[in-house]
Specification:
17% helix, 4 helices, 14-stranded antiparallel beta barrel, alpha+beta
Length: 308
């Protein structure tokens, strides 16, 4: 099954000629039928490397927003502390969460994340862990963040993270240490604006010969969240990074019934529509989201969080 998905993805990415498509089909069949588990893992490792070499858009497999934010287009600067640590100062409750998202429809290349946000009036703090990949190729993120209310309408936050890249292709592991800074401003009670600067600065550690810039790509994001009415909320963001000069996102959230939420969003560069639903059971929140990519197709994920 792994190689069926991989073959389809690579046909789209490379726009293969008929001969190359036939050759790839033959190789995939040979791998599936004749190679042992270790050889399959090595070929999957090659596939993983090719994903990041040939996809033309900015790909961050570690900083993937929660499923609610992803369903709203992915602009997280006013939605999640993962994209703006200043949002920690706006939390009224502690929070524990876990997410699973499979961008490539290959189980070995899924992203799993979890974290804990400690809400308090003095110095709200968050800790997050993210893992992408499998034993032969893995990217990991360990992040500590803090926020502070500096006035009635302003908050500020900072974060430090360590990203680790491990692969059989390298003799030693390689990593990066970077920092984030973010601000939020509430001009009126039902509107929140925010700005964040991610991975600035970023310093390489470990194996210096490995190019690991993709795990800590610099980004600036500016956005808003508007509570139009009790049942309707909209969010939008514009961001700039090294690979994409300008990208935008927009999403809407609607609560048609008590404790049930419907979400839809859109992101540019390239155009990616998204959709999701959420349900609250007491203090537990369940979220499911999906995103369509012209090359990778439909990807899905789910998340759970507990507020207390």
């Amino acid at each position: 099954m792994i190689f069926f998905y991989s073959k389809n993805i690579f046909n789209n990415i490379f726009q293969l000629s008929t001969f190359r498509s036939q050759l790839l089909s033959y190789l995939c069949a040979m791998i599936e039928n004749q190679m042992n588990g270790k050889m399959k893992n090595r070929v999957l490792l090659l596939f993983a490397g090719c994903f990041f070499c040939f996809l033309t858009e900015a790909i961050d497999n570690l900083r993937i927003a929660d499923l609610r934010t992803l369903s709203l287009g992915g602009g997280g600067v006013t939605e999640t502390p993962l994209y703006n640590p200043a949002l920690l100062a706006t939390l009224n409750q502690h929070k524990i969460y876990a997410n699973y998202y499979n961008r490539y429809s290959v189980s070995e290349l899924a992203t799993m994340s979890g974290g804990f946000y400690y809400a308090n009036s003095f110095l709200p703090t968050g800790f997050e862990i993210t893992s992408f990949g499998y034993d032969e190729y893995r990217e990991s993120l360990f992040r500590l963040s803090m926020g502070k209310q500096i006035s009635e309408r302003w908050t500020i936050g900072v974060a430090v993270q360590f990203m680790l890249l491990q692969s059989e292709l390298f003799e030693e592991s390689s990593g990066r240490i970077s920092s984030d800074i973010g601000f939020t401003f509430r001009p009126v009670d039902n509107v929140l604006t925010g700005i964040s600067i991610l991975h600035a600065p970023s310093v390489k550690v470990g194996d210096k010969t490995v190019d690991n810039r993709h795990i800590a790509s610099y980004m600036v994001q500016l956005g808003f969240n508007w509570q139009v009415m009790n049942a309707v909320q909209i969010a939008g963001a514009v961001d700039h990074c090294e690979e994409d000069p300008v990208a935008g996102s927009f999403g809407i959230e609607y609560v048609p019934a008590d404790k049930f939420t419907i979400r839809a969003g859109l992101r540019t560069a390239p155009l990616k529509p998204s959709f999701g639903v959420g349900y609250q059971l007491a203090d537990i929140h369940f979220d499911v989201g999906m995103l369509y990519h012209a090359t990778l197709g439909i990807s899905m994920g789910f998340g759970i969080s507990f507020n207390f």
